[in-house]
Amino acid sequence: MAVPKRKMSRSNTRHRRSAWKAEAPKLVKTVENGRTVYSLPHRARVVEDSQGTPLFLEYKGRKVADV
């Protein structure tokens, strides 16, 4: 394991740690059947029937895969 040659100052330590912040996911708001749905952009979404059973995956209005 690597061992630092010199002690790292408090300001340098905090500056390094501040770069590791988690980002909030960027969500896209869409309205489906009168319901507002938030989803991740550029991802295939699951199309469900009225009972909530998943039917297939859809991307840009096209069927991509079966579930």
Automatic annotation (TrEMBL):
Composition bias, Basic residues: 1-19
Assigned GO CC terms: large ribosomal subunit
GO process terms (BP): translation
Alphabetical list of InterPro entries matching this protein: Ribosomal_bL32 (IPR002677), Ribosomal_zn-bd (IPR011332)
Region of interest (Disordered), ranges: 1-21
SUPFAM superfamilies: Zn-binding ribosomal proteins
Domain of life: Bacteria
Keywords: Ribonucleoprotein, Ribosomal protein
UniProt GO MF annotations: structural constituent of ribosome
Membrane-crossing residue ranges in chain numbering: none
Family to which this protein belongs: Belongs to the bacterial ribosomal protein bL32 family.
Protein name as annotated: Large ribosomal subunit protein bL32
